[in-house]
Amino acid sequence: MPLRRKVRGAAAAGRRAAVRWWLLSLAATGATVTAAAALLAVALHVSSSAAASGPASSSGVPYRLSKLDGAADDAGEKRWWLPAPSRGFTPCVAPSPAYKSPGPSRGYLLVLTNGGLNQMRAGISDMVAVARMLKATLIIPELDKKSFWHDKSNFSDVFDEEYFIHSLANDVKVEKKLPKDLVKAPKFVRYFKSWSGIDYYHDEIYPLWEHRQVIRAAKSDSRLANNYLPPDIQKLRCRAFFQALRFAPPIEALGNLLVERMRSFGPYIALHLRYEKDMLAFSGCTHGLSQTESEELAMIRENTSYWKVKDIDPLDQRSHGYCPLTPKEVGMFLSALGYPSSTPVYIAAGEIYGGESHVVDLLSRFPIMMNKEKLASAEELRPFRQYASQMAALDYIVSVESDVFIPSYSGNMARAVGGHRRFLGHRKTIIPDRKALVRLFDKVDGGLLNEGERLSRRIIDIHRKRQGSPRKRKGPVSGTKGSDRFRSEEAFYENPLPDCLCQPESPASDASVVSI
């Protein structure tokens, strides 16, 4: 028997053994029938197509199903699995020789975070830097329990509290609670000014220590400028966000197990599919939804008091690229890039609005579509299921470790995961150009363009430089002023270059430079 056939047969046998192990382990742990049935279908599909598919591709994809006519060839397929060239950039977050351990504390900084998991992570990391600037002792931040998700998690439920404290010991003093004699003491409650620099904290906040021992930050998001802060402060933000904020051990353990299980299918895409009810209601995006669904979302938006914008034109939103891609559009996008239908896809998302009816087209194109509910048993997920932040943390881990990460929308998780993947070596992250894509997809829907080689080439050309390769953080959009100017900047944690990523042969920059 030729060596190639032996190798191919051994690989197929290994895949079948992995699937059998999957089914047995899922049955033993009480996984749902739906998950087992999905995996069994994959097993049958693999077995039946293995003989006909020919040699395994050099991309590492373990087997091949059908591919859209006219889509990228094998060489193109391999290209879309390769990581972005890092050009030698590696993390450089060590403090400068002049950096000193924290001295005597001036007081205590209480922090009330706000938003979802990744908005809170960014806010906490900023408050670590603010505590350093204010010479304050940081009390373990209080997580947001009043937002849309009503998550009652405490800091230690989501993050490794002990690790957080000890890893920042040379940067800021961190304590779990206020001293008893200060619990009922008068406090200054302040909404720190958004996107503030060191002068604001030095001139307006630091003098408050003369009158109170405790300052409470009523919000944590976007309270620190993205750019032009001292290099040691920027590096501290990176150490906090990318290193100190490690997830709690139970979350890390299950998250890593989910990664291992996804890898049993081969290289995989993590798709951050923003198609949850809250996201669609907030953004006013209704493309592909029924009239009843659109009205329900409008009612949610109207009844959510802290969402200020109520009247939204969905067509205008979509035409400007402000809407997430629909599941159907994501399927068209992946097919046009050249990913075969054998590609394992992990859905990093909450409950998809409308359920299976809105993902049927995506599933028909990519049947190996998994999520944490399919990969883990009900028993394994039970400790986390009622807590949105903890469930999101599982998705975060699987997304950071994926071979390719693709967000359908540029929200907080997309920015956080994308930045983390840059920090870890510019892992492949494809950012869809939504504005360009919806124009092409509308032409397909209108019969002016067919799926195939022409559409594929246009989409590939658009995304050649949108794969996460190194570049300096983008500055504000030209012509913007005031808060809009800061809001238009690329977020610090979305792209920590140049502050926290350096080329070994080049000295670290001594200033936070941006690319305009």
TrEMBL record:
Listed pathway(s): Glycan metabolism
Entry keyword Glycosyltransferase: yes
Keywords: Carbohydrate metabolism, Fucose metabolism, Glycoprotein, Glycosyltransferase, Membrane, Signal-anchor, Transferase, Transmembrane, Transmembrane helix
Membrane-topology descriptor: Single-pass type II membrane protein
Gene Ontology molecular functions: glycosyltransferase activity
One GO process term, biological-process aspect: fucose metabolic process
Region (Disordered): 464-488
Stretches of the chain forming a coiled coil according to its record: none
GO cellular component, one term: membrane
Subcellular location: Membrane
CDD domains reported in the protein's UniProt record: O-FucT_plant (cd11299)
Keyword rRNA processing appears in the UniProt entry: no
Highest taxon listed in the record's lineage: Eukaryota
Basic residues biased stretches: 464-475
Family in the record: Belongs to the glycosyltransferase GT106 family.
Protein name from the UniProt record: O-fucosyltransferase family protein
